[in-house]
């Protein structure tokens, strides 16, 4: 019997992580110091992008990305109904309208076959926010071939997929966040994600103009860069050139991020092993449908589709196993219903929601714990 609670996801903080944070606490900079730049450079390298901008969390990363792309009131943006609400909310922050588009039954990603019809139907669509859901990378090469015809930008929400990739039409690996096809890619460092800093986020891009704009927006729209100033009264002088925010990530958390990033590849390997064990355990179980994934999956979540989901969820909870549902379709949230969206709009997403269950997957999940989870799922179905 395993007594410790087993959540669906969990951070891992090592002694080295703690020491890195302590040494930053003892340094001259708690924020706006060298650890920010060091984390940005290391992260950009990890995902294969030119530029990275560290921000206060994934939601701020989405908000700033939409701002940087100059969304105007009334402009429309497409996203998936199966995502965390922040992927849609960022559009609302900027006065835009959210359009959802249904998911693909097998991958649970936004269905690329449906995107072109939507773009054809409405010329006020300015962008799309695809989500690398559960760790499955969106084929942004194919998406860009579609969106380019309609002058539409792409912000890839890769919160679930640092270290993930897809294989492009030439057979090459395209890492999530390398932004070869997306204008901007965003990440979160919330404790349930691959890299945990408490709160934290990152935007990656290869576009220098967007990068410069994000740097400005992150700190109130203020610059001290003498090459950008309209006037110069002395070395204290700065200008506020845009309406920006304080969306900075402090050095304390960037130090933690740098340390966590060093283990990111090893952690991803552990996630793969856990996923493989589940695949094998449930291969012949008629009550449990295992997920389909493409090469390059980052295994943020391991989602099974099951019968009697509520019963199983409650049974596992009684055994101290805390599964989760990712996600309640965003268009069915009361806020989005008030804006005119309704149940029934995206049947594939809604059908998926009625059966999905995210079971524990995180690098420190032990073999014994995982076997306990598998055993309990099997026992539940043996009993009913
Ligand atoms: C976690 C998450 C976010 C938001 O990130 P925060 O850091 O919690 O603000 C956005 N999109 C997706 C898909 C996420 O999983």
Largest sheet: 7 strands, mixed
Gyration radius, to the nearest Å?
21 Å
Bound molecules: pyridoxal-5'-phosphate
Number of helices: 13
Structure summarized in a few sentences:
The chain has 384 residues and is of the alpha/beta class. The chain has 13 helices and 16 strands. Helices cover 38% and strands 15% of the residues.
Structural summary, described in words:
The chain has helices at residues 15-25, 34-47, 58-68, 86-93, 112-121, 140-148, 208-218, 251-261, 264-282, 309-318, 334-338, 347-355, 367-383, and strands at 6-7, 51-55, 76-79, 97-100, 125-129, 153-157, 165-167, 173-175, 184-188, 201-205, 222-223, 239-240, 288-289, 302-306, 321-322, 356-359. It has a 7-stranded mixed sheet, with helices on both faces. The two termini are 21 Å apart. Strand 7 (165-167) and strand 8 (173-175) form a beta hairpin. With 384 residues, it is α/β, with parallel strands linked by helices. It contains 13 helices and 16 strands. Helix 2 (34-47) runs parallel beside helix 8 (251-261) and helix 3 (58-68) packs across helix 4. The chain folds into 2 domains: 15-262, Aspartate Aminotransferase, domain 2; 264-383, Aspartate Aminotransferase, domain 1 (Alpha-Beta Complex), CATH 3.90.1150.10. The longest helix is centred in the C-terminal third of the chain and has 19 residues, at 264-282.
Outline the fold blueprint:
Blueprint: E1 6-7, H1 15-25, H2 34-47, E2 51-55, H3 58-68, E3 76-79, H4 86-93, E4 97-100, H5 112-121, E5 125-129, H6 140-148, E6 153-157, E7 165-167, E8 173-175, E9 184-188, E10 201-205, H7 208-218, E11 222-223, E12 239-240, H8 251-261, H9 264-282, E13 288-289, E14 302-306, H10 309-318, E15 321-322, H11 334-338, H12 347-355, E16 356-359, H13 367-383
Parallel strand pairs: 1-15, 3-4, 3-5, 5-6, 6-9
Antiparallel strand pairs: 2-10, 7-8, 9-10, 11-12, 13-14, 14-16
Helix pairs in contact: 1-8, 2-8, 3-4, 3-7, 5-6
Pyridoxal-5'-phosphate is lined by residues 57-59, 83-84, 86-87, 131, 157, 159-160, 188, 190, 201.
